[in-house]
Amino acid sequence: MSEYKKISKSSDGRLNVPDFTIIPYIEGDGIGPDIWCATRLVVDAAIDKAYGNNRKIKWFELYVGEKGYKRTGEYLSRNSLDTIKSYVVAIKGPLTTPVGKGIRSLNVTIRQELDLYACIRPVKYINPVPSPMKYPEKVDMVVFRENTEDVYAGIEWESKSEHAKSIINFLRENMGINVPDDAGIGIKPISEHCTKRLVSRAIKYAIDNKLPSVTLMHKGNIMKFTEGSFAKWGYEVAKEKFLSGTITESELHDKYNGKMPEGKIIIKDRIADMLFQQVLLRPEEYHVIATPNLNGDYISDALAAQVGGLGMAPGANIGDSCAVFEATHGTAPKYANQDKVNPSSLILSATMMLDYMGWKEASNLIKKALTQTIQEGIVTYDLARQIKGAREVKCSEFAKAISEHLI
Ligand code: NAP
């Protein structure tokens, strides 16, 4: 019997992945159990196919969300967070944010508690998924969204509350700034440290994957010392850490006469609203986008729509000590337990996890099989309603079809 072990990290940050590895998972609420079941079937089958008996994953369930509340009285326990940290890599389905019970989003809490500062969302078209774009195949980008600060830091006070009143008074008395008495107040922290670690990761990703550009997306024309500083610090870290591998747009024109030098990556910045236009009009000019939290939330869903919607969009939340891979959509409660929805988002998130672990053979098998299954017109309801002549199958049948296409 082979012994299953945890993944660990070396002091230099490298991942040590045992061939027989244990990975914690959170099934998720709503459609979570259906898409998790489908994902697990496909991942296990791909590992079997790629490595036979030489590599395996033992899945280890963490009770979080509604299942956690039923079993332990807690939606998200300290123990679950500590376990993810200790096992280094985990995967999760979507979690409901209980409304009106004074509980913050579990997803945001997991990201902040584990300091999973980079939310990474690749957006790539799979032919023939229906898309509103004329040339969806030109959309091939990876969004690096800062995950821990900005207006998502949760620093806000309700209109007319004592805290809101004292901040308004403080601004009036100490800074001469007039804010209406009945304003709600929110604070948008964006720091040099958090910006630089996110942008570094984005540039490193572009270098490792031989991608030509990293775009800093921001709204610095209006919010100079938060979003504007994000762009400034992004350029700084490119110089501090990646001097020989990067150039800016002005250097391209001033030093290289507009001709991109071999082996370099261009670092550029774009104002957020303009970038929303450009990813529609000239998507081929963008490869990696690094951006603060709120912009990142908007642009990743908008880009997902360009390639067929949230059911197809994978994601990962990665920090220096651990990583959690997750579907980008929510719990779609109206479809819970109907074995109906598209599991592709979680399956593709699992391929990101396998890539992160260095198990690329299994990951590539899944990507190929998923594409082929869709190309044969075997799809779940969301795609079937848009692809003429498609055969609509259940969530579990779609997973089974992918497993049968693993070659
Ligand atoms: P949602 O669960 O993403 O669902 C919205 C719609 O998107 C669905 O009704 C469905 O559209 C489509 N959809 C989502 N997942 C799909 C899939 N796998 N296959 C096919 N279609 C899919 O958004 P929501 O209704 O706003 O949120 C519900 C709950 O999820 C909330 O409690 C929210 O807090 C939570 N949430 C969690 C996460 C997370 O865990 N990371 C993320 C977002 C939201 P049609 O009805 O048109 O078919």
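^ NAP complex. The chain has 14 helices and 17 strands. The chain has a mean pLDDT of 95.
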